[in-house]
Amino acid sequence: MSEDKQMLVDGEWCAAASGKSMDICNPATGEIIANVPRASAEDANRAVTASKEALVSKEWALMDPAQRGRILNKMAAATYAASKDLAKLESQNNGKTFREALGEIRYGAWTLEYFAGWADKVEGQTIPVPGNRFNYTLRQPLGVTAHIIPWNFPLQLAIRSFAPALASGCTVIAKPASLTPLSLIEWARVIEDCGLPSGVFQVITGPGGEIGDALAGSSGVDGIVLTGGVSTGKAVMKKAAENLTPVTLELGGKGCNVVFPDANLKFCAKAVCFGIFMNAGQMCW
Question: Where are the domains of the chain?
């Protein structure tokens, strides 16, 4: 039996503006387990506007960094508490084993704790200069950030992508892979009461060719993070270049190994096999 899901835009759970949806399958059985909104460029633009408004309000950007860190720690605790339920959902939607999914979710919680610790430690500098002058640097949030997430580690890589952005006071629009959006949607519900102001964190679901293209080409987006294939990365970089939007790309890694003559070959062989077959080979080292 499938379940209708919604996406999170401007602090509200909603359907796509068009009313369209996508079927989400369990890859182990082929069963349709959920329906999610099939968002369009219209929805993406709405999310960007809401994200910009949340940034301009400065409630998050100017919040005491230590308080931002405390909120991220609350998010981590909520993630740990819900880790088994999230892992079960991840296993059903992604196809990986429950054990592996549970490790992924808990690694995501640890990532939140890590960047929570950094929230109040990113500081400017006072720089000595000659003469009757005072010189200093002031670090500010980059702004609205868009995060395009892959399907192999849907929640872990999502959190790894946007946790540092949240810690530094940025607003976040997360676009999960069309095949595996369920854990991120559910996680957004898990952390609803942790203290993030409305519009600071949004989840929008839909085809990458439409949503990713709209986000990458938006003049309202100040930074883009993508983990995915080389062709997708090239397309995103090309669109982002129109607005000189900074882009962080992790593309096409597939676990190359460099083995030196004095290496323990037995150990190396085991490590290579682990790298190849971990997560059914759907992983890059």
Answer: 40-252, 256-285
At 91, give phi and psi (nearest 5°): -65, -40
Q: How far apart are CA 89 and CA 76, in angstroms?
A: 18
The Cα angle at residue 163 between residues 115 and 45, in degrees rounded to 5: 155
Where do we find the tokens 């084993």? 97
Which segments within 142-281 are labelled E, that is strand? Answer: 144-148, 171-175, 201-203, 223-228, 247-251
Query: Is residue 71 within 8 Å of residue 161, measured between CB atoms?
Result: no
- pLDDT tens digits along 237-248: 999 999 999 999
> Which whole number is the average pLDDT over 189-200?
97
Query: Would strands 144-148 and 223-228 be described as parallel, antiparallel, or unpaired?
Result: parallel
- Write out pLDDT tens, residues 247-275: 999 987 767 788 999 999 999 999 888 87
Percent of the chain surpassing pLDDT 70: 97
Pick the CATH number of 40-252 from 3.40.50.300, 3.40.605.10, 3.40.640.10, 3.90.110.10: 3.40.605.10
Q: What are the residue numbers of the active site?
A: 250, 284
As a whole number of angstroms, the distance between CA 138 and CA 263 comes to 47
